[in-house]
Design goal:
Chain lengths: 651, 651
């Protein structure tokens, strides 16, 4: 955490000074906003938290609930999400209060006595150490609280406007001469009261409407982000179609406090018995657990019958499945019948597929609004957060004048593929979990699928294709452990200035900046005459260097690009006095040196080995959302300049 | 973190439900209080935070400042203090914002050119891995903030009463028939305004008095804790004498933002040059650093002259010492001339030394009020916090009816020795640091002393002597790695219920409870017939078992003693169904099982090996402040019962 350099910070350094429109933020919703986010679930809150780092932009987030979410909904937090929390500054706090999954147990009918279940297998949860962060379980409400805190403590000082329901929108068409109004989207909202704070609507359930007040208003926006969940009206308003199986699967979900002799009650379990299936998720705090009790496929002519399944029925069924163990339920703070199909929307913005590229999208949909699926792989909240981050930084860039609006077209292009893959994965996993053990080809098929595909539900299979913001794989060989298009996997290094062991990736906060990592050639640090020094001097001085071309006048030199170096030597062998000054910029009102850009290997865990980095050095470019954008040789300065000319606008 | 078992917790689980006197805490200072703490520095705040866990007790803390400390004072946080922060629930947060010391550099005159300094040595800061926690630097104000948060979020809901100055006190003597009034201490306070929030008074400096309002009041207390710093009036009011060298040493201290070519500006350094000495402490946030510039011994006839040393003079001297490097100071948010002698008060309570044991002490002094010394070993705040914790849990026990008032006599007995040792250590270290390099016997004497004595300043040399709360060393051989009287050094284990790798000691929160760790014999878990099972069954059932004798009726069985077991097997080999139920108590309104008391070894770091625990098992008793109170064989149930009969009162 870096602070004090703009003046002494006496209180919590997580509270950044307000800036721009955050200084005097209007209490009431203004008539014109740059970005209107609809819905304060995971997708909307991440987008808001990211945009709060762009205090030049007027961002508002409307939510029909009267206040924060209090209970229920999702709870599975994949490691990729914890990495994201780290970027938003709250990983260590949420880890401290969450349940951590280290193993998963598989219970099946006991072959000796199939009426009983027995523990058939236990598999480690992260067999390959895919992230330095754990796999967690914690209620969605707490995740939202932390993002809300970040949004509020960021320079833009964003807080949700509660009690407003999105009703519809209208996008102005270009006039005859092709001009578009500055605020082309007109949005209609209605004041609502009394929407349950623990409620929400899964895709098939009836919407829980609040008392309508009749108080309506319109406002105009440059862009709208629909993060309004499975029954999204924003999706409807842009005429996108939600495609997918009409068939729904229902689960009785209950957050439970109970006494039981089932020995794995604090372990994540898949329980398959002759009486049905349970997915058991231990929860934060050491006592609560969640059970998803399988209620089967919902027939077309069900007409909501499944939704009338009572809590007592769910509990009875759970006891049946757990036989010979029993569940003596003492308290159920939340339960629901959670029904979803596998659906994905055909497009994630307002531009019809056959018109893509012809105009700037103005309305985006994110999260459950554009993809729904079962809860079993614990994906909904996680994928939604990545949607929100993706659109958040892109809107920030465009509205801040850093990038061309064409950047916004990459949102659909990138996230639609992810959603389709997710639905595919979830369909397979759900089918497997619902299959009777005796019908499986191989009795270990389930746990093997789980182990084999682990990387997917952990959130690390996303690999964006080449685009204006993702380079080609031409030089991938220089850093094989940083696959282009995948998220930058952190590794240990040592900070030169103080010898502190740190994770290189953890300096990458969700501040909207690009990271450029220069992995040095083998030469000792020198101001001139090494491949690294030549690159660094070019970056500092050349007119086509992205630093020179794209950093606004008067701004800190690292305000758009945060450039770091990692030397191949241990930290004691790196003489700070010989490190090119590109990596020791002087910033802020006092012109103080930033010492946190110069790293050395951790001799016990050499990052060059761990990440397959060529000893001749390499440049790794990372996007604001932590995805690797490019890998280049130190010598390829023209390619680097060219890459950024395709992304960032000169200032 | 355990929660939800008393009902669903929707918000931050760190906020515990208010209880007892915390439910309707009076805004204004009441006329009668159980404990009055004077001063909200580290000693007072820790005592308040601990007492906030005893919501049956009316505790108030008065402070003459108008609000929180904002700047300045101490910043060195030894690992023992970070362990303490863990117990108070904020270690992970303060670590995230603090500077971490991993090395110390020693700069000396360059033998080639003694006018210049050169780096003579670099030593690791924690060569022996003495704690799983780091050595940190962070401003005292933030430490106080976190304790304030804990005190406020605890059941007792304690917050400081600002703007009150302690004026004096009077202790009622027993009447002719020996009775003592219920509230024997009458305290006079005065309302003050305008004391600087960044200010304070080191022992020799003029007190910074606020504007007196003349508004005075008295209140009556059962006990008073003087945590009012070096010029303590509470100390004065009990007639204790502050003994020690009259000679003072002065340092110009400045918290600095500067540009410099000194390469170790982000490393803790001892700098000895021909022009004088500097202790350099990098600070949190990556830019700020503190320099202690030696201003030498203060002559008897100085009459405050040294205090008139200007900031410019300090800066000029620093530049002289750093030659050939330069320091271009851009901003100094805080500076002070910090003068202290080495002093310790003869007694830490109101009972004269020759009357000790004859009556219950009513007034205690803690922290700088009873010991002052140089800032160079970074001890002041740390030792003060341990004082506060020590008196805090003891007052909690006595006022809660758990222990006899005789317990309070151990406060002086335990902490006075620590203070004396501290002064001794500091005297030696200060002398060494002030010695001209050419006058040292061996040029490496300084760094060798630092390395050799590392355990002391890290806070781990404290070892309490045998007393009513510290057993004899008779069975120490059963657990050589848990020295009786020293703090319980945590070690990794695995939680059986979920296989999570955890630190055994981290479950020990500052909740006022004793911990009893049963290290099992080698047998597999069984409900009967093993040494462990016999011990566990005795503990659950025998009339002289501390659990049976001392747990109040209707309270959770672990409300006074938290009993845990560690098996010698890996977690997968421990069948929860066979673990004695002593370790799986059912608690709270729903009678839910507590699964967080059963542990297994971590096969990679076997706690039995790491802590020298006998394979026949052992019982380790740990006090509420994390000090080991006793080590006993599993079979020695009479000794265990006897030990607690000497401490805890039957309910
Ligand atoms: C009842 C329920 C139970 C669930 N259970 C599980 C589960 O057990 N496990 C699991 O993994 N996932 C579960 N989910 C799904 C998971 O919560 C979602 O995948 C995740 O929250 C998606 O995030 P989101 O931001 O896209 O949408 P949401 O979290 O649904 O957020 C949408 C937000 O928009 C608001 N909103 C909706 N319409 C409007 C409007 N017109 N105007 C203004 N605001 C509006 C809603 O109030 C809500 O706050 C559940 C969801 C629901 C609703
Ligand atoms: C100006 C200053 C600079 C220091 N610099 C350093 C340093 O550089 N490095 C270092 O290691 N240590 C330093 N210290 C010492 C370090 O801060 C102390 O060792 C530590 O704070 C001791 O904690 P304490 O709680 O015992 O006392 P303190 O932190 O001194 O707290 C005492 C509190 O009591 C209040 N108080 C005093 N008298 C009254 C009264 N009559 N009525 C009500 N309230 C009262 C004070 O306002 C204060 O808040 C400094 C102390 C001071 C005062």
């Amino acid at each position: 955490m870096q602070f004090h350099h703009y003046g002494y910070v006496s209180g919590d350094p997580r509270v950044q000074p307000a800036a721009g429109v955050g200084i005097d933020r209007a209490e009431e919703l203004p008539d014109e906003v740059d970005v209107l986010i609809v819905g304060s679930g995971p997708a909307g809150m991440v987008a808001a938290a990211q945009l709060a780092q762009f205090p030049g932009i007027v961002t508002r987030i409307v939510e029909r609930r009267p206040g924060r979410l209090e209970i229920g909904q999702a709870d599975g937090i994949q490691a990729r999400s914890v990495e994201t929390f780290q970027a938003f500054g709250f990983a260590e706090r949420i880890i401290a209060e969450a349940y951590r999954i280290t193993e998963m147990a598989f219970w099946k009918p006991d072959p000796e006595n199939p009426r009983n279940i027995h523990r058939a297998a236990v598999t480690p949860d992260d067999p390959s150490g895919i992230s330095e962060f754990p796999h967690l379980i914690v209620n969605q409400a707490r995740v939202l609280d932390y993002f809300a805190e970040y949004a509020h403590n960021s320079p833009g000082r964003i807080t949700p406007d509660y009690g407003w329901e999105f009703d519809g929108l209208d996008i102005a068409q270009p006039s005859a001469d092709g001009t578009v109004p500055e605020y082309p989207v007109t949005v209609t909202l209605e004041r609502v009261t009394g929407v349950g704070v623990g409620a929400g609507d899964a895709s098939h359930a009836a919407p829980l409407e609040g008392a309508r007040t009749g108080e309506r208003r319109t406002l105009r926006a440059k862009y709208v982000v629909g993060a309004d969940g499975a029954r999204s009206r924003v999706r409807e308003s842009i005429g996108a179609s939600h495609v997918g199986a009409q068939s729904f699967h229902a689960w009785g979900v209950m957050d439970t406090l109970a006494v039981t002799d089932f020995p794995d009650i604090r372990t994540k379990c898949s329980i398959q018995s002759e009486a049905g299936n349970i997915l058991l998720i231990p929860r934060e705090g050491g006592h609560l657990f969640r059970m998803y009790v399988d209620l089967g496929e919902v027939p077309e002519d069900d007409h909501g019958a499944v939704r009338r399944t009572t809590l007592d029925e769910i509990i009875a069924k759970a006891n049946d499945i757990l036989h010979p163990y029993t569940l003596d339920v003492r308290n159920v703070p939340w339960h629901s019948v959670y029904e979803v199909g596998h659906r994905v929307t055909d497009r994630f913005d307002d531009v019809p597929l056959d018109e893509q590229g012809s105009r700037t999208p103005r309305v985006f949909i994110t999260g459950d609004a554009c993809h729904t699926h079962s809860a079993k792989a614990g994906q909904g909240m996680n994928v939604s957060m990545q949607d929100g981050w993706n659109i958040g930084w892109k809107l920030g860039h465009v509205l801040d004048g850093r990038a061309d609006p064409a950047l916004l077209e990459t949102y659909h292009a990138e996230r639609h593929v992810v959603a389709k893959d997710l639905i595919e994965f979830d369909r397979e996993w759900s089918k497997l979990m619902a299959t009777k053990p005796e019908d499986l080809g191989d009795p270990t098929e389930l746990e093997e699928f789980y182990m084999r595909t682990f990387e997917f539900p952990a959130g690390f299979m996303t690999q964006y294709e080449a685009s204006m913001i993702v380079g080609g794989a031409g030089h991938q060989g220089l850093a094989t452990g940083f696959p282009i298009g995948k998220r930058f996997k952190s590794a240990p290094v040592e900070r030169v200035c103080d010898g502190n062991p740190v994770q290189l990736g953890h300096h990458h906060r969700a501040d909207g900046r690009w990271r450029i990592y220069a992995f040095a050639d083998a030469a000792a640090p020198a101001a001139h005459g090494t491949a690294l020094a030549d690159w660094a001097n070019w970056l500092r001085e050349a007119s086509d260097s992205p630093l020179v071309a794209f950093t606004p006048d008067g701004a800190d030199i690292d305000s758009v690009f945060d450039v770091k170096v990692v030397f191949q030597q241990p930290h004691a062998a790196v003489d700070l006095g010989r490190v090119p000054t590109t990596f020791l910029p002087k910033n802020g009102p006092f012109g103080l040196t930033d010492y946190e850009k110069v790293y050395a290997i951790d001799p016990q865990h050499d990052i060059f080995e761990l990440r397959g980095i060529d000893r001749s050095g390499a440049v790794v470019v990372v996007r604001p959302d932590q995805y690797v954008a490019n890998v280049l040789p130190l010598g390829a300065v023209d390619e680097l300049a060219g890459f950024f000319r395709g992304v960032v606008l000169p200032r």
